[in-house]
Structures are given as structure tokens and as C-alpha cells.
Specification:
two-stranded antiparallel ribbon, 21% strand, 7-stranded mixed beta sheet, alpha/beta, 241 residues, globular
Length: 241
């Protein structure tokens, strides 16, 4: 099974300027440096396609001189904040072409080598069980409401049930999508009709989207470094699915 990573790194982050390469923890080249270290150390991964319009991103990736890493200068029309994910799916399909596509982001700093290996192994097993793809999710056990009423419990039975007894709702955290290129081609999607939900804990599935997220990630990485925890495997803070 050939596993090829699609790692999109657009230049123009509005919420956290220079989010991909802004120094964090001991990583002078930021989340990009950490993610490429994690991915290139994952033995099940064959190639890593770094797609960006940012010369700093492309230059750093090329400077690693790693045979696994392939850089691609993305067209400007696919780099706007208004660019749809559907357009990127078509682009990833053309860029990678065949095999299994693992779509991930630098903004998932705590989904490390151990988690990628486990997700790929789980994906292989799931294909034999009738699933056609995999995506990572957070399981939400909170009191969730919509339109003035709860959506995951019945207040006529229990006004405030124990949270562990609530029906979980799953939030896609975008740390990992796995599907064959055939699904990209025939369904125009990065998941199929029957995806396996790979559940992560809160830290492993943490997504850096806002300035406060970046500050939290910085604090966790500094603590991990003080405890001499490898950035490749942050499972001391949380496990996989």
C-alpha cells in the first residue's frame, strides 16, 4: 500500500499571521518544521507533497533534502481565502494521482508519528471491514443544544444526565483524512461513503486556528520539551483512536 501525504500550506493566514512558519517551541520554522519531522519519520508514509504559494514554506521544505518530500508551487487561484475545499480536492487528485492519499495539516501539531502509523494501520484493517476511508474526529460529550433544545439527550428523561452517558457527537478535527485516489476521482471527495471515525483525545486532535490556539500549542510544546517528550510521539499527553 503506497501512502502519499497531501500537506497544504497557504501563505495568507488571517487569524494567525505566518502561522505555518512562525517560531514555536524549539522549532525555528514553526509548525511546518514540526509536521515535516513527524511525517518524514513515519515509516508507513512514502511521499510528502508540500503544496504552497509561500516561498518560505517551499524553501524550508527543500532545504531538508529529504527524498520523501516533494514541493509544489500552487497556483495563486487556489490560494485565496475563498478557495473551496472541493477545488483543493481536485488539485490533490491531479498532484498525487494514485495510491492512498493522507490529507493532513501543520495545524495539528500533536498528531505525531505514532498517531499517523496507528491511523494507517487502522485504515488498512477498516478496508477489510467494509469501510472505504478514514477521518480523525473528536468525540463531544457535552450538553449540546440547537434551536432552543438539546440535540444529544432527552430532558423529559433526565434534565442533566451524567456527561459520560450522553450520546457523543463527532467533530471533524482535520488532523487526518485517508482515502484512495480513486475516491478523489470518482466522488470528488477526500472521504468515501462509509468513513471510519478515528477518535482522538483533545490534545492529539487539537487544531491551531486562532491566536489563543497558537499560545496553547506553544505552552504544551514548551512543557513537552521540559519533560523531554519527543515531538515525534506526544502520546504521553494523549493517545490515538
Amino acid at each position: 500500500m503506497s501512502v502519499n501525504v497531501f500537506l497544504p500550506c497557504r501563505r495568507g493566514s488571517q487569524r494567525v499571521p505566518h502561522k505555518n512558519t512562525k517560531p514555536i517551541g524549539r522549532f525555528a520554522n514553526g509548525l511546518l518544521e514540526l509536521k515535516l519531522l513527524q511525517l518524514s519519520s513515519t515509516r508507513e508514509i512514502d511521499r510528502i507533497f508540500v503544496s504552497s504559494d509561500d516561498e518560505k514554506v517551499l524553501g524550508f521544505a527543500q532545504s531538508l533534502k529529504n527524498a520523501k518530500i516533494i514541493t509544489h508551487k500552487r497556483d495563486e487561484n487556489l490560494c485565496a481565502s475563498s478557495t473551496s475545499t472541493d477545488s483543493l480536492i481536485a488539485y490533490a487528485r491531479e498532484l498525487i494521482g494514485k495510491g492512498e492519499i493522507l490529507w493532513t495539516h501543520v495545524t495539528s501539531p500533536f498528531f505525531g508519528s505514532k498517531q499517523y502509523s496507528e491511523a494507517i494501520e487502522r485504515y488498512r484493517a477498516c478496508l477489510e471491514q467494509g469501510y472505504d476511508s478514514l477521518m480523525s474526529v473528536n468525540a463531544l460529550y457535552g450538553f449540546l443544544w440547537d434551536s432552543g433544545k438539546p440535540i444529544n439527550y432527552d430532558r423529559s428523561r433526565f434534565k442533566w444526565p451524567q456527561t459520560q452517558n450522553l450520546t457523543p457527537i463527532f467533530e471533524v478535527n482535520s488532523a487526518c483524512f485517508l482515502a484512495n485516489a480513486r475516491i478523489y476521482r470518482t466522488q470528488g471527495d477526500r472521504i468515501g461513503q462509509k468513513p471510519y471515525l478515528y477518535i482522538t483525545d483533545k490534545i492529539t486532535g487539537f487544531d491551531v486556528d486562532w491566536q489563543e490556539d497558537f499560545a496553547i500549542a506553544q505552552a504544551i510544546l514548551e512543557f513537552a520539551q521540559s519533560q523531554r517528550v519527543s515531538a515525534l510521539d506526544l502520546s504521553s499527553f494523549g493517545g490515538g483512536g
